[in-house]
Amino acid sequence: MRGADARRLPLLTPEYQFGTAAFSRNFFRKLFEGAKPPIVVFDDYHELGPSSPVHELLASGLQEIPRGARLIVLSRFPPPKEFARLRVNGLMEVIAPENLVLRAEEAAAIARARDGASFDAGQFEQALNLAQGWIAGLILMLEAARGGVAIRANGVDKPPELLFDYFAGEVLGLLDEKERRTLMRLATMPSMTAEAAAALADDPDAGELLERLARRGYFTTRDAQAHPNYRFHPLFQSFLADNARKAFDSVERRRLNLAAAQALEGSGQLEAAAALLRDASAWEEMTRLILSRADELEATGRQMVLASWIDNMPAGRIEASPWLLYWSGVARQPFAPREGRPLFRQSLPIFMEAGDAAGAFLAWSRLGMSILHDEIADQTQLDELISILHDLKKRYRQYPSAEVEAYVATVMFGALARRTADRVEIARWRQTAFDAAERSGKPKLLAYFRFVDIALALIDGEHARVREQIARLPTPESLGEAPYERAMVSFATGFAQIWSQTPGSCVETATRALADNDRAGVYAYSHSHCSFAISDCIIRGDVDSARIWLQRCGEYMDRFYQRRPSTYFCCVARIELASGHLGAAVAAARRAVEIAAGDNYLYNEALARFVLAQALTAAGELRDAERELDAMKIAGDNAAIDSMRYRRELLHAEILQLTGHEAQGLEILRAGLAFGESKDERIIHLHRPIAARIFARALKHGFSPELVRRLISVMDLQPPEDCGPEWPWPLKIVTFGGLQLFKDGNPLPVSRKTPRRLFNVLKAIAAFGGKDITQEKIIDAVWPDEDGDCARQSFDVAVHRLRKLIGDNHTIVVKGGRVGFDPARCWLDTWAFEAGLSARGATHADVAGTLALYAGDFLADDEDLPWAAPRRKYLREKFLKATETQATR
User: Going edge to edge, which strands form the sheet with 740-743?
Assistant: First the structure.
């Protein structure tokens, strides 16, 4: 304050010697007089020290500040105890340091104000991260960036001199030489406990120094743990590191790096330890760190960290160490299995030459995994691996551990199932794998075995085994930070769901799994989830959604594979087939067969040939379709893929029916369904119109009716033309001999309290032909005594109640003033009776079957309904005439 305002303020004269509190109150009262009281700032308040008498003076004077006035105290320390009354009375607010940190939008505004819109966004983001909310530090770094200095995540290439001068004066200038050297020795540590700091700096007072700096806010923070960790501000750490490079020679710096790395590793800060060892070119220590921590990193889903450590090693050291080669391959397995495969191949002979049984068996196992879980890998490589394992078992009489045995046996189980049909040997290896995985005591290994077992059991049609293993599979969430294992569990669940062997929608499973995979960057099974979702959509007849999933499937395949595997083109073919584009479906299926055969992938080849056979059948190319089924059988017979037999025989039965071999076709259909029933098949991935025809024929002849009805329900199939009463219609209406109603093949439960007039609506619709009847005609028949509006309302209520009773809103169709039954959802015996008698080329047996429908007169119990009489008379005459004709044939 200046001039007259300054002269108004009281002076600290001798009379206040024993009443300084009174002076303080008088001073602040005068200071804040006037219409516009000033904003007063006390900066660097911490310089006073904790025992200064000024605290008491201020505490007294601040009570005189009028409402609306502002006084700001800036300090690195919390408020002294003398300010407690002010805080309790609400006269003082304390703003914590974290609330003063510069926000991103504020920092951007500062950058724009200084540099306009031209500031580099990347450099700005790095500067903001390094400044950690410190305004002065941000401004100094932006100035340096404008001068051409590169700012990186771990510091700046050439820190601004002004910034270093600030640290030198603000912090180091307050310390003695011993304390300065202690801080420089600690510059390599991203965080540290007091004990670790004391050991590294060889200074028992290091922890006390860090605590003092943290308490005063000198670019050092501490967490709230009982044994706190201390961290330097990134820019202050860069400053200390720069000073250390000047103060210590290379020998001392290396010693500090190694000691810091050891301390960091001991506290679990592995990445920071690895960075120090790399910077010190301490390759022996780096190798030890990698080999001692690799298993832990893989188990916690940190394969990319492991890969980066090994990639930073000199190439010669990696190639000379089979374990580094091995772990380099393991680190790539979830993300790029083809990159890991040559590393396993390279390490295997080195392990064998060194007599390292564990290394040899594990390298063999991982090599096998990289082939088994790669759709575009040449599967004949598994034949070579099977032969190599026999040699390994001769060389090493026993496995080094249950864990190693579990890996080997699980991969051998998968390889044999994919390349042979020797179920005795496959079962032996499966049991060995399971026993070893249990003995290992490692949940991850047991989960991997279950994953492999579920996939192979589904392919071989062993569905009881699938359900058993699915029930014991861990949930993805329970696996924590293990993204590859989570992806495998989700894959197994989705695969089981498309076979209806476990509850849930594979579309929902795919949606959750893909979100998880995207977060983790693990795409090994993402395309499979898309193909599962495509199958689910096609089964339900939702082709539009299937196309959306196909696009995602292609994107994931392009991300993970060098080319698209056969399963992609199978999906294309099935979508085109469902859309009625038969030429496109055949072309895509032929491409799928070509790829799968080229990869020697027997299951994928059998699947592709099955899809092609369906497309050819739909296109009327029946001879070619039959040839594809023969080739499909050969592929299936060479591997343990019995699930193909069920669908192959059903499609073969359809082709035989279409080519005039009805008796042979029926026998194969009967046998195929019986086989499916024995395997507890719950769904079939057949073109919907083909499946509907096959199932209608099966029901007509009484083949596996329970299985067939379940499949019709799961696939929500529409009945084919001229389908009989055996089909599980949403509504089946029998009128001959009296009204009977059936829902999904079972008698419709009807309460005795249900009004008779409600059923009269159904009877009237049937009496007037069953379809395309004017509403007025029904209303006049059922409600002849009600006026127009009341009768129409009664009709609407009756239709609503009937739909609710039936449990289907689509069976009774009311549209455009006309009413009737939906022929796609309702079977009416009079329709079948008339169609059967008028069918051309009907055999004597066909006519006999039609006449059997006439179990009595039309609505025999309702002779009191006058509008039913014409229809009754007409149908009786047709029956009598047909019976007479049948007798003379």
Answer: 746-747, 740-743, 731-734, 826-828
Weakest mean pLDDT among 85-99, 539-553, 700-714: 85-99
- In whole angstroms, give the CA distance from residue 779 to residue 799: 11
For residues 571 and 601, is the Cβ–Cβ distance under 8 A?
A: no
Q: 118-153: buried (b, 16+ CB within 10 Å) or exposed (e) per residue? A: ebeeebbebbbebbbbbeebbbbbbebbeeeeebee
Question: CA–CA separation, 335 vs 524, rounded Å?
Answer: 7
- Report the distance separating Cα 365 and Cα 389, nearest Å: 9
Pick from 83-97, 514-528, 635-649, 703-717: least confident: 83-97
Confidence band, pLDDT 50/70/90 cuts, at residue 588:
very high
Residue 604 CB contacts under 8 Å (≥ 6 apart), including other chains:
375, 565, 566, 567, 592, 595, 596
Residue of 347 and 475 predicted with greater confidence: 347
Contacts (Cβ under 8 Å, ≥6 apart) of 76:
46, 216, 217, 218
Residue 36: half-sphere exposure toward Cβ, Cα within 13 Å: 1
Q: How far apart are CA 189 and CA 200, in angstroms?
A: 9
What are the contacts of 240-246 at 24+ separation with CB within 8 A? 240/183, 240/184, 240/186, 240/187, 241/155, 241/184, 241/187, 241/188, 242/159, 242/164, 243/172, 243/180, 243/184, 243/187, 244/184, 244/185, 244/187, 244/188
Q: Are 329 and 338 in contact (CB under 8 A)?
A: no
Judged against a pLDDT cut of 70, whether residue 3 lies above it is answered with no
Residue type, 732: K
Q: Which two tokens stand for residue 651?
A: 């499609």
Give the type of residue at 72: I
Phi–psi pair at 43, nearest 5 degrees = -95, 155
DSSP assignment, residue 158? S
CA atoms within 13 A on the CB side of 430: 20
**Whole-angstrom distance, CA of residue 528 vs CA of residue 630:** 27
Collapsing DSSP to helix, strand or coil, 190 comes out as: coil
Asked whether the CA dihedral 544, 547, 553, 558 is positive or negative, the reply is: negative
Describe the chain by its helix, strand, coil percentages, rounded to 5: 65, 5, 30
Q: For strand 812-815 and strand 220-222, is the pairing parallel, antiparallel, or unpaired? A: unpaired
CA atoms of 494 and 854, how far apart (whole Å): 48
Residue 599's SS3 state is: coil
- pTM listed for this prediction: 0.76
Q: How many whole angstroms separate alpha carbon 257 and alpha carbon 185? A: 9
H-type alpha helices, 740-868: 756-767, 775-782, 788-806, 829-838, 844-851
What is the 3 state secondary structure string of 687-738? Answer: CHHHHHHHHHHHHHCCCCHHHHHHHHHHHCCCCCCCCCCCCCCCEEEECECC
| Cα distance between the two ends of the chain | 128
Residues 6+ apart with CB under 8 A from 664: 656
Q: How would you class 496 by CB atoms within 10 Å of its CB: exposed for 0-12, middle for 13-18, buried for 19 or more?
A: buried
